[in-house]
Amino acid sequence: VGFVPALGLAQGDGAASRALTGMGVICWQLPWVGSVEEVLRRDGAGLDLVYLHRHGPMQRYAALARHWAPQARLVYSLADLHWLRAARAHALAIGQDTLPPEIEALRHAELTAILAADAVITHSSHEAALLAADTPQAAVHLLPWAIAPRPVTTPFAGRDAIAFVGSYGHPPNLDAARTLLAEVMPAVWAEAPALRLLLAGSDLPASLRDAAAAAPGPVEVLGHIPDLAALWERCRLSAAPLRYGAGLKGKVLDSLAAGIPCLCSETAAEGMDLPATLAPLVTAGPAAMAAAILRLHRDEAACTALGQAGLDWIEDHFSSARIVAAMRDVAG
Description:
With 332 residues, this protein is α/β, with parallel strands linked by helices. It contains 14 helices and 11 strands. Strand 3 (49-53), helix 3 and strand 4 form a beta-alpha-beta unit.
């Protein structure tokens, strides 16, 4: 098994690279190779499977993989549909659903890439349904990624915060954080002025720091956190008021895997097929989310029950054994 990054070929000394090497994975990086193309050209004839992750690498390397490794099974994990996220951002900005030419072109490019693969992985049931309609001849496999439950150990009384987690370089996350500060939390602070909001994640811009400093309630700006376990030990709840986006939302799953209920917009919950026990987490609009935050922050029994329901669902649907079994069909 070999791994080659489309970006960061020089970053060969990190913990992730060392961990992969310890598992027996060959990490192709400088100075041993200069590009993905070189790896495909040199090793293509011996490959049984080529796995390409996200649309950009699929566009750049699918044809090269077919050329240098024609015998290999080509697997494309799309992570999420980029055109769908772009279309929703456009609709939110201008108030209508007509796709401009550049987003329509992106849609066609993504669908073409899907048809070029032997197997396609999507994490969202909503996107799987879209692909079944748009590319019925494609071999689309619906499967999530493996998540290990890591329930918090701090008692409910020792946790008093609500968290938002996300990479702020991703526009839907930045928009959601601003929505939380401007439209959700002011209603919460009107009744619970001491409830602390924690903002965690990389690439946090100065504008969001300024908005946090001007908020009418306590906000702690944490920025990037290498391990979220310590964050969850401080929280009763998390929130994901996404107004647009695509794919499964890692921030929601990570929270549930810690036994922390995550209040979700309908967009944040899309494609997860949450069970009925977790339906109370999905809220329709900022006012409903604020009301749910207040209710669960005050109700230990309800909050704990939802936390346990989340842990049960994660353990049942996201176990390594289940993902490995599903990947057998993907790998053929």
